[in-house]
Specification:
- With 344 residues, the chain is of the alpha+beta class.
- The chain has two domains: 143 residues, no CATH class; 99 residues, Barwin-like endoglucanases.
- 18% of the residues lie in helices and 23% in strands.
- It contains seven helices and 13 strands.
- The strands form three sheets. Strands 8-12-9-11-10-13 form a six-stranded mixed barrel. Strands 1-6-7-5 form a four-stranded mixed beta sheet, sandwiched between helices. The chain has a three-stranded antiparallel beta sheet with strand order 2-3-4.
- Strand 10 and strand 11 form a beta hairpin.
- Helix 2 crosses helix 3.
- The longest helix has 17 residues.
- The radius of gyration is 37 Å and the shape is elongated.
- The chain starts with a helix and ends with a strand.
C-alpha cells in the first residue's frame, strides 16, 4: 500500500514538473489553471504554487471548508506574493517560468503591457530573442512562479538565476565650452613730474616747456556671448535616420505603397539612444514592418520598426502612431501630440 502511495506521489510530481505553465487572464487578474489530483487538498495546492489556500478559495468562489474532488478545475491566482517579474530567487526558492502563447498580430510591446507592463527589452532577455519579431503560437516567458525548493512539486522545473534586461547607459551631452573674454588691464596712473620754472631771457616770449599729458583711450568693453545649453540629449545613433533605414529601402524598394497622415505621441523606451533602433506602435500594420516618419513642422524624418498595436485607452484615442522617445528626440519634437506623415 505504501509503495502504491509513493508511486502515485511521484507520478503527480512528474506530471506537474513536466507541464508548461500557461498564464491566463481575467480582466486585470492573472492566474494558472490547475486540475485537482488524488490526495490533493487546498493546503497542498497552496504549497505547490506558493500561495495561501485562503487566497485560492475565494478566487474560485469556493469555501476552504469544502473538500476538493479529483478532476476539479481550479484557478490559482498570480499575485505579488508568487509572481516574480524582476530580481533573483532567494536561497530557498527557485523561479519556474510561466508562459504566454502569442496570438496573431501580437507584438512584444502589447504582450508586455498585458502582463504588468513588462518592458520589451526584459521579454527579449527572458526569451533570448535577438529581434522584436514574434509569430503566432510562440510561447513567451512573461514572468516566473516563485516557489519554495522543499515544498513545491514544481521546483524541479525551476531555475536559480534569470536573465535581466540590459541597462542602457545614459551619456550626458558634452558641455559647450564658454569663452570668457579676458578682463581689460587698467593702465597705471601717469607719473606726475615737476619741472622747475625756466626764466626766459629778456625781451623774449615765455615758452611753456612742461611735457604734454597723453590721453589714454578708454578700454574697449568686451562681453562674452551666452551659450544656450541643449534642451535634451540627441541620440548618438548611426546616422540621423536610424538603424532601420536600409531595411526600409529593401522593404519598399524605393516605392512605398502606403502614405498616411495623422497625430503621433511618444512612449518611453531604452532602445535607440545608442544603437539608433527606433520603434513605433501602430494599428493594422504587421509587427516588423519598417515605416518612415516625417514631421511636417520641421521636415525631419526617421525610420522605425512596428512593435505592435497601440493599446486601447482614452489617452490613445485619435492617435495614428506612438513612437519611442529616442525617435522623438531625433525628430526634435516636444512631448505631446504632433502631426506626422507615415510611409511604408
Amino acid at each position: 500500500m505504501r509503495k502504491g502511495l509513493v508511486y502515485l506521489f511521484v507520478l503527480i510530481t512528474l506530471n506537474l514538473s513536466a507541464q508548461t505553465l500557461q498564464v491566463q487572464q481575467e480582466g486585470s487578474k492573472l492566474y494558472l489553471n490547475h486540475t485537482v489530483a488524488a490526495k490533493e487538498n487546498w493546503y497542498s495546492i497552496g504549497r505547490t504554487y506558493n500561495i495561501s489556500p485562503r487566497d485560492i478559495a475565494p478566487f474560485n468562489n469556493a469555501s476552504i471548508d469544502k473538500g476538493l474532488s479529483i478532476g476539479q478545475k481550479l484557478k490559482v491566482p498570480l499575485t505579488e506574493v508568487n509572481l516574480a517579474q524582476g530580481g533573483q530567487p532567494a536561497p530557498d526558492e527557485v523561479f519556474v517560468p510561466v508562459y504566454h502563447t502569442v496570438k496573431e498580430k501580437e507584438g512584444l510591446y502589447r504582450i508586455g503591457q498585458n502582463y504588468n507592463k513588462v518592458s520589451v527589452d526584459q521579454l527579449k532577455a527572458w526569451n533570448k530573442l535577438k529581434s522584436d519579431e514574434t509569430s503566432k503560437g510562440m510561447n513567451l516567458v512573461v514572468g516566473y512562479l516563485r516557489v519554495k525548493r522543499e515544498l513545491s512539486s514544481l521546483a524541479s522545473g525551476g531555475v536559480t538565476k534569470v536573465a535581466s534586461q540590459p541597462v542602457a547607459k545614459t551619456v550626458a551631452p558634452a558641455p559647450t565650452p564658454v569663452t570668457t573674454a579676458p578682463e581689460p588691464k587698467t593702465p597705471p596712473p601717469p607719473v606726475k613730474t615737476t619741472t622747475p620754472p625756466v626764466t626766459p631771457p629778456a625781451n623774449t616770449t615765455a615758452v611753456n616747456t612742461a611735457p604734454k599729458k597723453e590721453t589714454q583711450p578708454p578700454p574697449a568693453k568686451t562681453t562674452a556671448e551666452p551659450v544656450a545649453a541643449p534642451s535634451k540629449p540627441i541620440p548618438s545613433a548611426p546616422g540621423t535616420e536610424g538603424a532601420f533605414a536600409g531595411l526600409y529601402t529593401d522593404q519598399s524598394k524605393g516605392n512605398p505603397s502606403n502614405s498616411i497622415t495623422g497625430q503621433a505621441a511618444s512612449f518611453k523606451s531604452t532602445s535607440g539612444w545608442k544603437d539608433g533602433k527606433y520603434y513605433v506602435l501602430m494599428n493594422n500594420v504587421p509587427p516588423g514592418t519598417i515605416v518612415k516618419i516625417t514631421t511636417p513642422a520641421n521636415n525631419k524624418h526617421v525610420y522605425a520598426k512596428v512593435l505592435g498595436e497601440i493599446p486601447a485607452g482614452k489617452e490613445n484615442e485619435g492617435l495614428l502612431v506612438r513612437l519611442s522617445n529616442a525617435a522623438l528626440a531625433q525628430l526634435q519634437m516636444p512631448e505631446g501630440k504632433f502631426d506626422v506623415q507615415l510611409e511604408y
